[in-house]
Every structure is written in C-alpha cells, then in structure tokens.
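Deliverable D2.4 — example input (structure tokens):
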C-alpha cells in the first residue's frame, strides 16, 4: 500500500513537472551571406526553390509534393507526403515582404499533429545579408513531455543550420 502511494505521488509530481514546462517554444538560427536580399529572397518566397536548399528535401528522395495557389508569395502552398521520418504536412505563406520578411504557417499531420510558424528575416549589412530562420509555436502536454527526452532546438536547429548553409552556397555562387 505504501509503495503504491509512493508511486502515485511520484507520478503526480512528474505530471506536474511536465505541465509546468514552457507553454511555447522558439528555435532560431542565423547565417551571414555574401549576397544581397534580392538574390536570397526569391529562393525562400517560392516553395519550388526549396528543393535546392531545404535539408528536409534530402530526407526522402521519393517524397510526394504538391503546390497550389500562386507560384510564390502570400497564399502559396506546398504540401508533402514522405516516408516515416519526413512525415506529412503543409506550408502556406501568410506574409511576404519582398527582400525583408517571410512568415509561413506549417502544419504537420504525420508522424504527429502540430501547427507552428516559420519566419525568415533578411537584414542587409553592407555587402552581406544576415538571414535568420525561426520556428515557434505552442507546446501541448505531449510536446512538453517529448521535450524532456528530445531537444527540439538540437534536432530542428541542426536542420536550420544545414539549410542556411546550403542556401548560402547557392547564393554565393550566383
């Protein structure tokens, strides 16, 4: 009986600990590129261009892609269905301020459901441009629990670093 009470108290304490974790998250990476915003922005603002630099495009070479809405800019939509690692989801450009800012809503359907926001900011600094990519959103109980065992910042941040580096390599060659 005492053992059951101790286990119950530990379980309640663990649940309370998980529940008190932050209610939202933000992951952000930046990289300086020897290019002007006018060279960089079109590669972000058109989902068709993401195949060239996005690290998630390399996860599943057989990914099924679909595009709808305008070719680029606000209301452009990109949906994907891939293997177990890539999953399934949809992105839509919500705001596009040419050469400065892009805001995208991303919905994940598989392997888990989530809705987050992605932002790109381009800050011209003389002959270079600082490109910042961020993803943020709210954390439900399950994502708080997962956060105890998996670092979203490490997993997603690493992919942001890879993508920004690939983007840099493309724009600095052109």
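Example output (designed residues):
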């Amino acid at each position: 009986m005492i053992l059951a009470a101790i286990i119950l108290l530990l379980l309640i304490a663990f649940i309370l600990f998980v529940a008190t974790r932050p209610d939202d998250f933000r992951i952000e990476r930046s990289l300086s590129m020897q290019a002007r915003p006018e060279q960089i922005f079109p590669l972000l603002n058109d989902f068709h261009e993401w195949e060239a630099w996005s690290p998630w495009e390399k996860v599943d070479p057989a990914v099924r892609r679909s595009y709808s809405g305008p070719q680029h800019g606000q209301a452009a939509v990109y949906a994907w269905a891939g293997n177990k690692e890539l999953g399934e989801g949809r992105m839509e450009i919500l705001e596009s301020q040419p050469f400065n800012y892009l805001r995208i809503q991303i919905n994940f359907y598989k392997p888990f459901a989530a809705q987050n926001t992605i932002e790109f900011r381009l800050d011209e600094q003389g002959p270079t441009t600082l490109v910042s990519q961020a993803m943020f959103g709210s954390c439900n109980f399950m994502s708080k629990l997962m956060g105890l065992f998996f670092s979203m910042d490490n997993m997603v941040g690493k992919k942001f670093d890879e993508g920004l580096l690939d983007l840099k390599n493309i724009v600095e060659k052109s």
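DSSP finds four helices and seven strands in the chain.
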